[in-house]
Design a protein that fits this description.
The structure holds 2 protein chains of 2 kinds. Chain A is of the alpha+beta class. Chain A folds into 3 domains: 27-92 and 115-198 and 293-364, FAD/NAD(P)-binding domain (3-Layer(bba) Sandwich); 204-289, Alpha-Beta Plaits (2-Layer Sandwich), CATH 3.30.70; 438-534, Glutaredoxin. Chain A contains 14 helices and 27 strands. The longest helix of chain A is centred in the last third of the chain and has 25 residues, at 349-373. By secondary structure, chain B is an all-alpha fold. Chain B contains 3 helices and no strands. Classes of the chains: A alpha+beta, B mainly alpha. The A-B interface holds A 379, 382-383, 385-387, 389-390, 394, 396-397, 400 and B 32-33, 36-37, 39-41, 44.
């Protein structure tokens, strides 16, 4: 079997390991785990001016089949981290999914049917590429100190810091952190160190993942089968990745023997039946079962949990890595403000509030998908059979088929939002993420709203639809103005339409690009109040 | 809109008969298939999750009452 490309990094001794009697070095933030979530969080914090130590117990980027689908929201986040374009350039762009039953196409959906967005609905990209590009970005930022082969083996909470013991090839050394963020994955050792439960539902069905290399003319779409001719009675998924690699996911019987199923000589004929030919090589084969679960509290004193360390979902719906990246963007700006003392520590509690609700939503959605694929009783199977049969001739049947509901950002019901005080017919509600739209600069240069938000500093930002009256904006708030005498030009009208905007309309955006408040005609006092609320200063 | 439990058909016997006849000659398994499709079609037609939830509760309560009656008769 061919090996996936690996990127090896060396362990390097750090002066912190030679402090001897002078005591442990102290840092504002220690991030544990250099996967997509930990790397992104470290970059975000560094770009906000925080010094970060990023620890990883390995010396290389993980290989094998892991996350492949990265959402529009994740790409917009990576744009803010300066790495979005590289991901999109390498990735396979897609937005169409097809659902088959037996040999026939039942239903087709488009996750981004409209124009005027900088980023596509999804790209497929092997996780190791995403991690490699993030590591490259980390290495451009002197504020991040990335230490490979540094494993946290001890964690002692103190009143004003966390004392860590780090194991290295040269032996252990101590570190102190004001805050620790654990992004150390589903088997998080930090989660065990704080003594947190991680309970949830275990699914008995087994799935076989094979990444195969072949040149094929299949379109770059997500194909999902119920009861396909090549894999009777179960479900299957086919999806393209870069480098002519195709992800194949086959549902197995719960009692299938993993050792036997995983043998290439047993996998090969099944996939040959699926593809109709034998011209492929295996890159990777693995078998998995999964659990849907989350930590009860994402914050344990000065230790915060993000990504798979905090929550796990079934893989159908691309809600694992993408929700971890949403955790990172949610936490970075809050942690930055708390460290700067521009917001009280209580702001961090909203990280738990917002992201645990999002985890519940992701678990609910992916559990429903899994239950639809693997009905638990004869009657559940009967209901699914009815849905698949009705889907042939009814729209409602098509819409009820659940072959995975793909990741979309959650809308937060949060104390940081200011409730609408006026009438709105559309546009993002407070707590929703900002929709993108095409805009043009005065000089005619075309761009996007998400890009203007980045150029305004990815901080609290007022998005104004000009009416000639300049809004009095607090000093530390960025401004993106559309219309008026000097603003961007909304030549397609899509920005106004997507924000239900009239002249004078303004949205207060949080540093993570979520809507904090919106006004038909903002006043300085209303803006100050919304800003204080969104910053957790009540 | 709450679940309507007043009589909505001009001729309720015709409605009951229509459902009964649809099941005539079917095995239990076929009947269960028919019911599953019928429930989904009607639920979509109603298109109101609140009404659906109330209907489920009412149906579950009837099941409970029936099993309790059965137990009392046995005692």
């Amino acid at each position: 079997m061919a090996q996936h490309s690996k990127i090896q990094f060396g362990y390097r001794r750090h002066p912190d390991q030679d402090r001897g009697g002078t005591g442990a070095a102290e840092y504002p933030v220690v991030v544990v785990g250099a996967g997509p979530v930990g790397l992104s969080l470290a970059i975000d914090l560094a770009q906000r001016g925080q010094g970060v130590v990023l620890l990883d117990d390995a010396d290389r980027i993980g290989e094998g089949s892991r996350a492949i689908c990265f959402s529009k929201r994740s790409l917009e986040y990576w744009d803010r981290l300066g790495i979005g374009q590289r991901m999109v350039d390498k990735g396979v762009v897609w937005s169409v999914g097809k659902i088959f039953h037996g040999a026939s196409l039942l239903y087709q959906f488009n996750l981004l049917p409209e124009q005027g967005h900088r980023r596509p609905a999804f790209i497929n990209l092997q996780q190791f590429y995403a991690e490699a590009y993030l590591v490259d970005r980390v290495q451009e930022l002197s504020a991040i100190d990335l230490r490979w082969c540094n494993k946290v083996t001890g964690l002692q909470p103190r009143n004003d810091h966390v004392a860590l013991t780090i194991q290295t090839p040269d032996g252990p050394y101590p570190l102190r952190a004001n805050y620790v963020v654990a992004c150390d994955g589903a088997r998080s050792s930090l989660r065990q160190m704080v003594g947190a439960e991680f309970a949830g539902k275990v699914f008995e069905d087994q799935f076989l993942i094979a990444d195969v290399r072949m040149t094929a003319e299949f379109p770059t779409e997500r194909w999902f089968w119920f009861d396909p001719p090549f894999h009777a009675g179960r479900s299957a998924l086919l999806h393209k990745q870069p480098d002519d690699i195709w992800r194949i996911d086959l549902q197995l019987h719960p009692d299938a023997d993993p050792v036997i199923e995983k043998r290439p000589e047993n996998v090969r004929p099944r996939i040959a039946r699926m593809l109709g030919h034998e011209k492929f090589e295996f890159e990777w084969i693995s078998l998995y079962k999964f659990q849907c679960r989350r930590m009860e509290k994402f914050i344990h004193g000065r230790v915060m949990f993000a990504g798979d360390a905090a929550h796990q979902v079934s893989p159908f719906g691309a809600r694992g890595a993408n929700s971890g990246l949403e955790d990172a963007e949610n936490l970075a700006w809050k942690l930055d403000r708390v460290l700067r003392k521009t917001s009280p520590e209580a702001l961090l509690e909203t990280y738990h509030g917002e992201r645990s609700a999002a985890a519940d939503e992701n678990i609910r959605e992916s559990t429903r998908s899994t239950d639809f694929m693997a009905p638990a009783s004869a009657q559940e199977a009967r209901l699914r059979k009815a849905v698949l049969a009705l889907a042939k001739e009814t729209e409602f049947g098509k819409r009820m088929i659940n072959g995975g509901r793909l990741s979309v950002p959650s809308t937060y019901h949060t104390p940081l939002s200011t409730a609408d005080g006026e009438a709105w017919r559309g546009g993002p509600r407070p707590g929703a993420s900002m929709p993108d739209a095409p805009i043009a600069a005065r000089g005619g240069e075309l761009g996007f709203l998400t890009d203007a938000f980045i150029k305004a500093g990815a901080r609290f930002t007022l998005l104004e639809f000009g009416n000639g009256v300049a809004v009095d904006v607090p000093d530390d708030v960025g401004v993106v103005r559309i219309g008026g005498s000097n603003g961007f030009i909304d030549s397609t009208g899509l920005a106004a339409a997507r924000y239900d905007a009239e002249p004078g309309t303004a949205y207060l955006l949080r540093p993570d690009g979520y809507v904090a408040a919106r006004f038909r005609q903002p006043t300085r006092s209303a803006l100050d109040a919304a800003l204080a609320r969104a910053a957790g200063i009540n | 809109m709450p679940l309507s439990t007043s009589s909505n058909f001009a001729k309720p016997d015709d409605a009951f008969r229509a459902i009964v006849e649809a099941h005539r000659g079917l095995s239990d398994a076929q009947s269960a298939d028919l019911d599953a499709a019928l429930v989904l079609i009607l639920a979509n037609h109603i298109g109101d999750l609140g009404v659906l939830a109330e209907a489920i509760v009412l149906a579950q309560r009837r099941m409970l009452d029936a099993s309790q009656q059965q137990q009392q008769q046995q005692q």
